[in-house]
Amino acid sequence: MSSTAVGCLLSPLLPRPSSTVAAAGCNCKSRSIRVRASMSSPPPPVAEFPYLPPAQRELMVEILSMVETGLGPQLLPSTVPSDVLSFQNPSGSAHGAIDIRHGGRDSTVNFILESWLHCQIPTGALNIATLLVFLNSSTDAPHLLMEFMQGSPTSLVLLLDLIPRKDVVLHPDYLDEFYHQTDLDKQRQVLSKLPQVQPYMSSSIYARSLLSPTAIAVDINCGDGKEQTLLEEIIRGKLNMICKEIVQIWLRLCVKTRLSSEVDQDILVKRDSLIKSKAIEIDLEANLPRMFTPKVASRIIREIKEAYKCIDSGN
Amino acid sequence: MSSTAVGCLLSPLLPRPSSTVAAAGCNCKSRSIRVRASMSSPPPPVAEFPYLPPAQRELMVEILSMVETGLGPQLLPSTVPSDVLSFQNPSGSAHGAIDIRHGGRDSTVNFILESWLHCQIPTGALNIATLLVFLNSSTDAPHLLMEFMQGSPTSLVLLLDLIPRKDVVLHPDYLDEFYHQTDLDKQRQVLSKLPQVQPYMSSSIYARSLLSPTAIAVDINCGDGKEQTLLEEIIRGKLNMICKEIVQIWLRLCVKTRLSSEVDQDILVKRDSLIKSKAIEIDLEANLPRMFTPKVASRIIREIKEAYKCIDSGN
Asked: What Gene Ontology terms describe where this protein resides (cellular component) (chains A, B) (predicted)?
């Protein structure tokens, strides 16, 4: 069930509409609605999250609410067409939703991509939910990636990382500022000590290279029996705490950090551009046609390519 | 027992003298001696390997023989002083041996460092054996690292990697040439499938950053009982095959590869220099004084710093 892990650059996660939120017992409804309301637009289809189990859905909603509250004023309204905001394959066995919004003038945000994908597979269902916040070249602070990939009710792959924008071997100060001083590895260690948690490694070596040395890339496997409850407990407990802590660190440090004069902006832009194009090649072009048919996939990929190409405002 | 994993840049491994080799039943005696003989110098103390279990010692000897046969004509004689070639702490509970040789004119080798460290610890003994071949700036091909760290008779940490010289995210062609086309990940996968093998993660996030996405960084743990035999079987079986295959790949590709005109040599030299200085700071300066007393450690570190500073011949 494992995606290529730049699976990263495609998939879902967003605040669900108030009715769904209420049904799942989530207490962040008011915040979610406030953020949306301030943008004068209704929740997009990506916010529905119809297939995720309650614990994942609630965590996704809370994380999205945190990020949207933090970035809210910086984000422009979505211009994603309706047949990309929500889509399915001809047989109806695969569904998906994507939303992309760009950062406004004076924002450090290039774009925020939220998505979810659901499809039937021989062993049940595959659900991928992704949040990606790509910053622009006005800052060299890390991008944010959070992704859930679930292929069975009792297991879950989680990718959560502040993706470095620079070669950290050549820039130990960068590593120190964003990864060491923030004590990010502590969060990874807490999770890795659970007996159900194993490291997860993408099949793409380029995707592996993108991640920071403190990345959380784990496969949480609670067995083949009735351990769905155990997985939910882990998600509502340690995972919830760790995800929020890391996203808070990113919001605190990364959205405000500006470029120092020493940064080579050409390399920064080239590096970001490579990450985007390789992600499309490795993840989307390799997987979406199989899940949604080539016709549907090409529509989705075209929209994402357009978003990725969008001029880096780099104020 | 785990070292910092740029533990990497300090420790041992070399062909033992003929008597020891014969006692351990190793069949590479003649090759080893041939290489040494061609350099008109007797085996240095690092070649003794008095503390390693037979299976590790034999593998180390074979690997060193392969590397020395491959690089032989490129290497200059050692100039390491006798009190660094072999040393111990005042109480005699810790012993070590290091040898460093530089590459000659027209060589792609900057230096080869071989070392072993042994010290008593509360749970028994710690043995670290290292081979590091650092290339010079006449090529951007990866450096070679192989390290065994053993803190109990039934467990072993292995680091084996072609250490990238460039930011692989910015240079996907580099990743493709040295890591993808060589199918290096296949070797890692074979080892990772053994039930005794777990991923190993250095406590230093800088050390983690140095490794390639196909690095073998594993903790082989065969339990607390009488599973010493099992560990030896793994070392003589899969580990032996995998280590040799990877070192062969490195010898084939890396020592011959020359720089393309597009490479920024200033960045290459700066990056290599940072790796060296951070390795000394993270690994040697943090650990050697505790193992050998500050006085002995300072002598060793001074010699290694001199070797690291040695002018990059970058022909």
From this structure: chloroplast
**DSSP code of residue A41:** S
Residue A72 is given by DSSP the state G
**Chain A contact for B50 (CB, 8 A cutoff):** no
How far is residue B142's CA from residue B179's CA, in Å, rounded to a whole number?
10
**Which of A175, A199, A209 is facing B169, going by the closest CB pair?**
A209
CA–CA separation, B54 and A274 (whole Å): 47
Q: How distant, in Å, are the alpha carbons of A169, B14, B72, B86, B138 from that of B40?
A: 39, 17, 12, 20, 27
Q: Which residues of chain B have pLDDT under 70?
A: 1-42, 225-227, 257, 259-263, 310-315
Alpha-carbon distance of B68 to B74, in angstroms, equals 9
For A109-163, the pLDDT digits (tens) are 999 999 999 998 887 899 999 999 999 998 999 999 999 999 888 899 999 999 9
> Hunting for tokens 């599973």 — which residue is that?
B227
C-alpha B32/C-alpha B238 separation (Å) is 23
The whole-number pLDDT of residue B40 equals 52
* Contact yes or no for A75/A67 (Cβ under 8 A): no
In a domain, A314, yes or no: no
Q: What is the DSSP letter of B78?
A: P
The answer, for B269 touching chain A at a CB cutoff of 8 Å, is no
Q: What's the structural domain count of chain A?
A: 1
ipTM: 0.85
Q: What's the rounded Cα separation, in Å, for the pair B47 and B64?
A: 10
Low-confidence ranges of chain A (pLDDT < 50): 1-39, 313-315
Q: What is the pLDDT at residue A263?
A: 67
The predicted pLDDT at position B74 comes to 83
Domain extent for A183: 7-309
Q: How much is the pLDDT for B35?
A: 37
Q: In CATH, what number is assigned to the domain containing residue B110?
A: 3.40.1500.20
Q: Quick one: B261 exposed, middle or buried, by C-beta within 10 A (0-12, 13-18, 19+)?
A: exposed
- Interchain CB contact of A209 with B (< 8 Å): yes
- Reported as a single tens digit per residue, the pLDDT across A172-210 is 999 999 999 999 999 999 999 999 999 999 999 999 999
How close A11 comes to chain B (CA, Å)? Answer: 22
Query: What is the number of other CB atoms lying within 10 angstroms of the CB of residue A208?
Result: 22
Q: By the 8 A CB rule, do B284 and B11 touch?
A: no
CB contact under 8 A, B209 and A175: yes
